[in-house]
Write a structure and sequence with these properties.
single chain, about 70% helix, 2 strands, mainly alpha, two-stranded antiparallel ribbon, about 400 residues, 18 helices
């Protein structure tokens, strides 16, 4: 017993040290403008219209009213620095709630290390220090998961609606949550029905401004073109590898037998059900829209949950992945490159070693910290292209 307690204390101390490093890495980004996301300029314009004129113009279809309002009032009070700080606070709360969820479900030491793994992932750090909605959406999804597990179905529904009000793609994780909970047994179906009903009803209310502004349901229409299925899969696969970087991806591939073994716990493990369904659904959504690396953060979260279960007795694997993520922040190893920037239909062998995502994003932010105030094509997209790993 004492040996186990000492091991747990070492895990806690180790992960706290990693989180402290993540905070140090985050500070330069936090102070270097609101980020290079393609939508950041329009998010500020939408938020300022809400906070200053009580008017609503979606930043992009179908809108993100919850996040846009948070940005608008945060910007009104403290400018872009405060809106960045709100993202960082949401990231910290997300990591804390993820740790609590894993502990509540019986995964403790390995859970601490997957929390650290998420914390030092460069794409997570970039999102957590920018005025973007990705971290907020994940936070509300995890809050919904914790609430439904504690039989607070109405609160889970509120959190689910808030997640949808930040990113409509959150529906994939909310479906995963419902499947995981419903499989527990008939006694839990009531939770799922109440949560789903509250989330659906409040989501409709949240998007009333989008409906009014568009004069109908046009705000919800998808007019984004898609390439052939093979090209879509190729684009998604290339960016899937880049989520963790090639070295960490090799560790995940080596852990496939353990992940398959974890699937045998489907009937008894809520985490396995949630992580599996969430990973599959978020990947299907990304194959349809294989654009930004931050769109893969839901997949990262679900993979982390599965790794916490699968590698529960192999914490050194998780520690190694954490170390590799820290290296990946600064150094990126590539094997393939798109054959045509912004119009990729295939790839070509191009082994390279370049600056990692964190360094690249920081350089691009500092080159033009006010790009978000400019025009979409001339300034914002130039900053986006500067930081984007694959312009395809």
């Amino acid at each position: 017993m004492l040996d186990r307690l000492r091991s747990t204390d070492r895990d806690t101390a180790g992960t706290l040290g990693v989180l402290a490093v993540a905070l140090v890495l985050a500070l330069p980004l936090l102070l270097s403008g609101p980020g290079n996301d393609l939508d950041v300029g329009n998010v500020f314009r939408s938020g300022r219209a809400i906070a200053r004129h009580l008017d609503y113009v979606p930043s992009r279809p179908p809108g993100a009213p919850v996040h846009e309002a948070l940005v608008g009032f945060g910007d009104l009070i403290g400018g872009p620095l405060l809106t960045n700080l709100l993202s960082l606070a949401a990231a910290g709360l997300l990591l804390w709630q993820l740790d609590r969820l894993l502990r509540d479900e019986g995964v403790a030491p390995s859970g601490r290390w997957v929390v650290a793994l998420v914390a030092v992932n460069p794409w997570f750090l970039i999102a957590a220090t920018a005025t973007a909605d990705y971290v907020f959406a994940l936070l509300f999804c995890v809050l919904a998961a914790r609430a439904i597990r504690q039989d607070h179905a109405v609160l889970a529904g509120l959190a689910g609606a808030a997640a949808m009000g930040c990113r409509v793609g959150s529906i994939m994780l909310l479906i995963a949550l419902a499947v995981a909970e419903a499989a527990v047994g008939r006694a839990h179906w009531r939770r799922v029905l109440v949560t789903g009903g509250v989330a659906a009803g409040l989501t409709l209310v949240v998007f009333i401004p989008s409906f009014v502004e568009a004069g109908g349901l046009a705000f919800a229409e998808n007019d984004f073109s898609a390439s052939s299925p093979l090209v879509q899969l190729g684009r998604a696969a290339a960016k899937d590898v880049l989520v963790l970087g090639i070295p960490s991806t090799l560790v995940v591939l080596a852990a496939i037998p353990a992940l398959i073994a974890a699937l045998r716990r489907w009937s008894t493990s809520w985490l396995v059900r949630f992580g599996t369904v969430g990973l599959v659904l978020s990947q299907l959504l990304f194959v349809r829209f294989p654009w930004k690396m931050a769109h893969l953060l839901p997949s990262l979260l679900c993979l982390a949950v599965l790794l916490a279960v699968a590698l529960e007795d192999r914490r050194r694997w998780l520690m190694a992945m954490v170390a590799l993520q820290l290296v990946f922040c600064f150094v990126r190893v590539d094997v393939l490159a798109p054959n045509d920037a912004n119009e990729a239909s295939g790839g070509k062998l191009a082994p390279t070693v370049t600056a990692g995502p964190l360094l690249t994003d920081l350089r691009c932010r500092r080159d033009d910290p006010d790009a978000y105030l400019g025009r979409q094509k001339e300034e914002i997209e130039v900053a986006w292209d500067c930081a984007a790993p694959y312009r395809d």
